[in-house]
UniProtKB/TrEMBL annotation, chain A:
Protein name: Putrescine transport system permease protein PotH
A GO cellular component entry from the record: plasma membrane
Protein location: Cell membrane
Species of provenance: Marinobacterium lacunae
Transmembrane parts of this sequence: 21-46, 81-105, 117-138, 168-190, 211-233, 267-288
GO biological process assignments: transmembrane transport
Protein family (similarity comment): Belongs to the binding-protein-dependent transport system permease family. CysTW subfamily.
Keyword annotations: Cell membrane, Membrane, Transmembrane, Transmembrane helix, Transport
Domain ABC transmembrane type-1: 82-288
Topological type in the membrane: Multi-pass membrane protein
Coiled-coil region: none
Entry-linked Pfam families: BPD_transp_1
UniProtKB/TrEMBL annotation, chain B:
InterPro entries in alphabetical order: SBP (IPR006059), Sperm_putr-bd (IPR001188)
Name this polypeptide is given: Putrescine-binding periplasmic protein
Lineage: Bacteria, Pseudomonadati, Pseudomonadota, Gammaproteobacteria, Oceanospirillales
Pfam families in the cross-refs: SBP_bac_8
Single GO BP term: polyamine transport
UniProt-listed SUPFAM superfamilies: Periplasmic binding protein-like II
Source species: Marinobacterium lacunae
């Protein structure tokens, strides 16, 4: 008895401790390094920034350079790029949800044997390299691409549609690439849905659409949030898809980061940009976290 | 316990010995060069001659190379940055000083070229020119003739006069997506110092570029090769060798597209790609062997033949095929050479202003 009470907190410390150690090593520590760089100033050296700590004559000097953050406010470019990134991420997430929900729903309703096949079909495209799939979209969407040629041949249009190098191409690319991240958590959630609730609803004379709105949808909230986070968060910082499919107007924060890092060789400003982006993302992440812990508590 | 420990130790020592002999047998060299920038058989011949295995990797922008070098421990033994990036990189302490006693072929280099590169690398201590080229105008001869009524392009007026460029809009115009190339060309056309030192100069160039912006189909630094060869665009501000590549591709497929290249009379920017050894290179002896090999006239002449860029090796010129050697777009005449300018090492403030202005020009933001 005595032994048991001693053991329990130990196991708890371990199970709680490992994720925290993980977070410390792979999130907090890199974050602090980036924060440190964002507060220094650029230099011609390896690495190309000055140290913020200076130890001379037994005096430790810390010089923090806030001008990198001020620069982000001074020029409207950065604010616009952040807003545009958030806009693209928001509508892409919405698109993934509208497309992904019916898919996940149909999968969850399918007979169990078919479910495995359907699940495989969702994951199958990701066996090909991500980059190759985005390149394939370039071939599909360009002025002389498959889609335009087909529509011209059908006679639906007279001149090629300008899709490539616009925001529409970016949306198509992102929704295509991130759809599995929406479908999988939704499916995992919907497949667990207690059928007896639906039967009860039907017995009490509710029509299926009404049942869906009042029972299925609220119960799948966890899956919707998880899927949306998995799509929204990486999309905000997406670089490859807008770079390959987007035009000069689809200016997202990933591209601005690239410019600061490579064109301007200004690692401190690039780091400041990254820190601000993280701060912007922490709001949805913490909302998600709060919801998750509440859901876990409710399960208990 | 003790015996297990000894066994482990023995295994480890043996393992170390095996790896070290393997290393002694196989000498390796890590080279990082521009894409499409070497002859097909250069590396194979070097390997056959020296037994040094070359791990060859390519990049397509100075920025990418620089970011790798600035992070430290890039893992490369030989790299090829452009001269405009070199000065800062030398100041950052990225490169080793070259030991000329290990480079007996050094004297093959063109002394006047070395002198002109002295400003980026005083005393030519850290690097030597590999290939060089100009940033000029590539064009579809027939389409330009149809639109403008001229047989050949001789002036930047075709690009920077909005009236002219407007006529080429429909057949397609592209500019390099490199502010460090386009700003100097614009300023040179406006009669200013091609290397901006003030933000006013950048504003002036921006004004001129915004006027021609509506007629530019896209900004890209490599796509124009294919598009020019296929006839999808009719004018590209681009790098000489790339445009000659487009020319030979069009000839190969025999599609009737006739690609021309012009170093306009107002002058053009010249870039020199420099061979250097990072300070933290591991295979230094192998690097010297490779550098000395590249300095052999016959070797570098073959590279020039293959990629259509002139080299920095004076002794190599007689070995370069006549077709390349006598092409005024590749080996410019003395008269043209006097109008050429080099890209200077710009201050961080100017670079930032240029990048910012470039975004405004491209996206209107």
């Amino acid at each position: 008895m005595n032994k048991l009470t001693l053991k329990r907190p130990n196991g708890r410390v371990l199970t709680v401790g490992i994720p925290y150690l993980w977070l410390l090593l792979f999130f907090a520590l890199p974050f602090l390094i980036v924060l440190k760089i964002s507060l220094s100033s650029m230099a011609i050296a390896i690495p190309p920034y000055e140290s913020i700590l200076n130890f001379t004559d037994d005096v430790l000097q810390i010089s923090l350079n806030l001008s990198n953050y001020l620069l982000l406010l001074e020029d409207s470019l950065y604010v616009q790029a952040y807003l545009h990134s958030l806009q693209i991420a928001f509508f892409s997430t919405l698109g993934c949800l509208l497309l992904g929900y019916p898919m996940a729903y149909a999968m969850a309703k399918a007979p169990p044997r078919k479910q495995t096949i359907l699940l495989l079909l969702i994951m199958l495209p990701s066996w090909t390299s991500f980059l190759i799939r985005v390149y394939a979209w370039m071939g599909l969407l360009s002025d002389t691409g498959l889609i335009n040629n087909f529509l011209l041949w059908l006679g639906v249009i007279d001149s090629p549609l300008r899709i490539m190098n616009t925001d529409i191409a970016v949306y198509i690319g992102i929704i295509y690439a991130y759809l599995p991240f929406m479908v999988l958590p939704l499916y995992a959630n919907l497949v667990k849905l207690d059928r007896s609730l639906l039967e009860a609803s039907a017995d009490l004379g509710s029509r299926s659409l009404h049942t869906f709105w009042t029972i299925t949808l609220p119960l799948s909230k966890g899956g919707i949030i998880a899927g949306s986070m998995l799509v929204f968060i990486p999309t905000v910082g997406e670089f490859v898809i807008p770079e390959l499919l987007g035009g000069p107007n689809s200016l997202m924060i990933g591209k601005i980061l690239w410019q600061e890092f490579f064109n301007n060789r200004d690692w401190p400003v690039a780091s400041a940009l990254a820190i601000v982006m993280l701060a912007l993302l922490i709001i949805p992440i913490s909302l998600f976290h709060r919801y998750q812990s509440r859901a876990m508590e409710a399960d208990r | 316990m003790n015996s297990t420990f000894r066994k482990t130790l023995l295994a480890l020592t043996l393992g170390a010995a095996v790896t070290s002999t393997a290393q002694a047998e196989e000498r390796v060299l890590h080279v990082y060069n521009w894409s499409d920038y070497i002859a097909e058989d250069t590396l194979a011949n070097f390997e056959a001659k020296t037994g040094i295995h070359v791990v060859y990797d390519v990049f397509d922008s100075n920025e990418v190379l620089e970011a790798k070098l600035l992070s430290g421990r890039s893992g490369y033994d030989v790299v090829v940055p452009s001269n405009s990036f070199l000065a800062k990189q030398i100041r950052a302490g990225i490169f080793k000083e070259l030991d000329r006693s290990k480079l007996p072929n050094w004297d093959n280099l063109d002394p006047s070229l070395l002198k002109s590169l002295d400003h980026a690398d005083p005393g030519n201590k850290h690097a030597f020119p590999y290939l060089w080229g100009t940033t000029g105008i590539g064009y579809n001869v027939d389409k330009v003739k149809a639109a403008l009524g001229v047989d050949e392009i001789t002036s930047w007026d075709v690009v920077f006069n909005p009236e002219n460029l407007a006529k080429l809009k429909d057949c397609g115009v592209s500019l390099l997506d490199a502010p460090s190339e386009i700003f100097p060309a614009t300023l040179n056309y406006l009669g200013e110092d091609p290397n901006p030192t003030t933000t006013d100069a950048i504003a002036k160039a921006e004004e001129a570029l915004l006027k021609i912006r509506p007629y530019v189909r896209y900004f890209h630094s490599s796509k124009y090769i294919t598009d020019l060869a296929n006839g999808d665009i009719c004018l590209a501000v681009g790098w000489s060798g790339d445009i000659f590549q487009a020319q030979s591709r069009a000839i190969e497929v025999n599609n009737g597209v006739n690609v021309g290249y012009s170093i306009p009379k107002e002058g053009a920017g010249t870039f020199f790609d420099m061979v250097a050894v990072p300070a933290d290179a591991k295979n230094v002896d192998e690097a010297y062997a490779f550098l000395n090999y590249l300095l052999e006239p016959e070797v570098i002449a073959k590279v020039s033949d293959y990629v259509a860029y002139p080299n920095g090796n004076a002794a190599a010129t007689p070995y370069v095929s006549e077709e390349i050697r006598t092409n005024p777009g590749i080996y410019p005449s003395k008269e043209t050479s006097e109008k050429l300018y080099t890209f200077a090492d710009l201050s961080p403030k100017i670079i930032r202003a240029m990048t910012r202005s470039w975004t405004r020009i491209k996206s209107g933001q």
